[in-house]
Amino acid sequence: MGDSWKDGLLVYLTRPEDRNDVVYYDDKIVVALDKYPKATLHLLVIPREILPLGVGDLGEEHLPLLHHIASLVASVSSLPLRIGFHAVPSMRQLHLHIISDDFSSPTLKNKKHWNSFTSSFFKSLDSVIEAIESKRRFNVDAEYEEEKLSGKLVCHKCSEAFAQIPKLKQHLASVHPASPDMTLDSVLACLKTSKKRQAPASPEDVPSKRHASLADPKES
User: Fold this and answer.
1) Which of 25, 28, 37, 181 is the 20 to 30 A CA-CA neighbour of 9?
2) pLDDT tens digits, residue range 95-132?
3) Which secondary-structure segment (H or E) carries 194?
4) Which residue numbers are catalytic?
């Protein structure tokens, strides 16, 4: 089997309307539920063009795509979400994470999972765009970045340190619980609003069948 699993995101690029785990798509991107979510809400934004790239491979030629994604997620920027890229991705196809900052999930199991989202290993979309606009590229030192994954377990909200993931997760649940308002439908409603502001909806610019009930009659 080798490392063919690294191409697992390619299945989302064709006929996304037929997939139950796709929650939104247009002609440039697909938004899908992460198969192994690390928080209450965890989405992947995947370009529909095949781009076997990491964030460290991005340059000026990718700015139109990045701005398109930024315009889509702008409406959720006020929510307790983290929006960005892993410095060194595990999957080959370029993808961006939208993840709630409660990190409440049984599939968040180890230090690597935790630090990949709560340390500077996680590169915000805004910082990537800003760097490319000013320096023409977004440079990544992979070895340096991967060292961050073995760093200490520290609460991202109050900086308390923990020796083990179970203790950290207990702390999060009791001191920093997930917001009851952080739901998939609330985020999708914001994404729909964002697209309404940009332009009239097109046949490809719609929620998937799973969330078709969110669409107005004029847009479906």
Assistant:
1) 181
2) 999 999 999 999 999 999 999 999 999 999 999 999 99
3) helix 184-198
4) 95
